[in-house]
Design a protein that fits this description.
The complex is a heterodimer of chains A (103) and B (271). With 103 residues, chain A is mainly β. Helices cover 0% and strands 50% of the residues of chain A. Chain A has no helices and 7 strands. Chain B has one domain: Cytochrome Bc1 Complex, Chain D, domain 2 (Orthogonal Bundle), CATH 1.10.760. In chain B, strand 3 and strand 4 form a beta hairpin. Classes of the chains: A mainly beta (103), B mainly alpha (271). The interface between A and B is small, with 12 and 11 residues.
Chain lengths: 103, 271
C-alpha cells in the first residue's frame, strides 16, 4: 500500500483551494544506479480529484513531475465539510486514494 | 490606441530588469529566499512527519511497545518543545545524548531492538530503504517549531561535551587540512551558490541550527543534523563520522548551545 497523501482544502468566497502532497519516487527512467543499470521509470500517470463525488480535476502526468509531487489548484464551488477525494494511478498500475473534508 | 500603453509597459519592464541585474548578488539571494518561502507550502517533510507520528504511536519491536513512553528530557511521552532542549544529559543513560541517540536508546530499552537494528538505516535512500529514525526526527522536531532554542549545560558531562565539540569545530585535519572553521568561521563565504553560515557568530549559529532537519530536494529525503555533520565530514574528506558517536553529539551540542535564543523553525526545505 503506497504512503498516504496529505490533503488540505479551504473555501474562500466561492472558490475552493486544494493542496495535495503525494508521496512517490517519480523515477524518470533516465537515471542509472551505482552499478550502471538504468533505474526503471516509475511515475504517477493519472490524477483524479472529486468534490462530493463530482470530478473537478483530471490530470495526465509524465516524467517531468518531480519526486513527492505537490499539487495545488482552485475550483469554483465547495463549502466547509464537503468531501474531497484524490486518487493517483502510476505506470505500475499501483494506486492510492485519500479523502479530506474542506476546512 | 492600444500600442502606446504597450510601449510604455515594455519600457518599464526593461528598466526593472536592468535595475535587478545591477543590484547583483544580494537580489539573487533575496529571490532565492522568496522561492524557498514559496516552497515551504507543500514541503515533503510533512510526509516524514506523518510517518514518524505513526512510528511513535504504534506498538513495535520485539517487546511490541509504543515509543510514546520515551523520555526526551521533558518527561515520558512529552514531545512538544523537547528538541529545543537537546542535546542534553540523561541520568538514566548517564551520558549526553542528541535526539537521534535518545531515540535509539528508547528503541533499545523500551521496544527491545538491538542497538545494531535500531541504527541499521540512519539515513534513508528511496522508498525501498526508508529510515525510521529520519521519520521520528521529523515528527519530534515539528513539535518544537516556534520554540526558542534552550540547551542547558547543567551537568559536568554536558560541559565536557561542549568543550570537546568546540575543540572539534576548530580542529584542522584530513587530506585538505580542513576544519569546520575553514568554511564556517567567516562572513560572506559560499560554495558555488550555497551561502555558508558563519557559525562563530550568534546570528549565524542560530540561523543555521534552527533550519535542520530539512527536506533536501537534491536528495529527495528528509535529512537530520546527524546527516548534516556526516556529510560535512565527507565533504572535508575526513574519516566517516559514525552515526550517534560521541564526536557527533559533542559537535551537535556545541552548535545547538551556540544557537540558544534562536527560534526553531524546522522541518524546513533546502536545495
Amino acid at each position: 500500500m503506497p504512503d498516504p497523501m496529505k490533503i488540505r482544502a479551504t473555501t474562500v468566497g466561492d472558490t475552493t483551494e486544494v493542496k495535495v502532497l503525494m508521496s512517490h519516487e517519480m523515477e524518470t527512467g533516465q537515471r542509472k544506479d551505482a552499478q550502471g543499470k538504468t533505474i526503471p521509470a516509475w511515475f504517477i500517470q493519472n490524477v483524479l480529484v472529486t468534490w462530493n463525488g463530482k470530478m473537478v480535476l483530471a490530470a495526465q502526468w509524465g516524467t517531468a513531475v518531480a519526486k513527492n509531487p505537490f499539487l495545488s489548484f482552485k475550483f469554483k464551488g465547495g463549502a466547509k465539510g464537503d468531501r474531497i477525494n484524490v486518487t493517483w494511478i502510476d505506470n505500475r498500475a499501483e494506486k492510492r486514494s485519500d479523502e479530506a473534508t474542506i476546512a | 490606441m492600444g500600442t502606446k500603453p504597450t510601449r510604455s509597459v515594455c519600457g518599464a519592464a526593461l528598466l526593472g530588469l536592468i535595475a535587478s541585474v545591477a543590484s547583483g548578488q544580494s537580489s539573487t539571494v533575496d529571490e532565492i529566499a522568496k522561492y524557498r518561502a514559496a516552497l515551504q507550502d507543500g514541503n515533503p517533510a510533512e510526509l516524514w512527519e506523518a510517518r514518524g507520528e505513526a512510528l511513535w504511536k504504534d506498538r513495535r519491536g520485539p517487546r511490541q511497545v509504543a515509543l510514546s513512553q520515551c523520555d526526551l528530557g521533558l518527561g515520558p511521552g512529552v514531545v512538544k518543545g523537547a528538541y529545543a532542549r537537546l542535546p542534553a544529559y540523561f541520568a538514566d543513560a548517564d551520558r549526553v545524548m542528541d535526539l537521534e541517540t535518545r531515540l535509539v536508546w528508547c528503541m533499545v530499552t523500551l521496544q527491545g531492538y538491538t542497538d545494531a537494528d535500531a541504527k541499521k538505516q540512519p539515513f534513508g535512500n528511496g522508498s525501498e530503504r526508508k529510515s525510521d529514525i529520519e521519520a521520528l526526527v521529523a515528527f519530534v522536531t515539528a513539535a518544537s517549531r516556534g520554540v526558542p532554542m534552550n540547551v542547558a549545560l547543567d551537568h559536568p558531562k554536558a560541559i565536557e561535551m561542549y568543550r570537546v565539540g568546540e575543540k572539534i569545530f576548530y580542529y584542522r585535519g584530513g587530506p585538505h587540512d580542513f576544519g569546520c572553521v575553514t568554511c564556517h568561521a567567516d562572513d560572506g563565504k559560499r560554495i558555488r551558490l550555497q551561502d555558508l553560515p558563519n557559525l562563530t557568530t550568534r546570528e549565524g549559529a542560530r540561523a543555521a541550527y534552527t533550519a535542520w532537519p530539512a527536506y533536501r530536494v537534491s536528495q529527495g529525503e528528509l535529512r537530520t543534523f546527524q546527516w548534516r555533520l556526516y556529510d560535512c565530514f565527507r565533504q572535508q574528506r575526513f574519516p566517516e563520522l559514525v552515526f550517534g558517536s560521541d564526536a557527533s553529539i559533542a559537535l551537535t551540542l556545541y552548535l545547538a548551545r551556540n544557537a540558544n535564543g534562536g527560534i526553531f523553525d524546522a522541518p524546513a526545505i533546502k536545495r
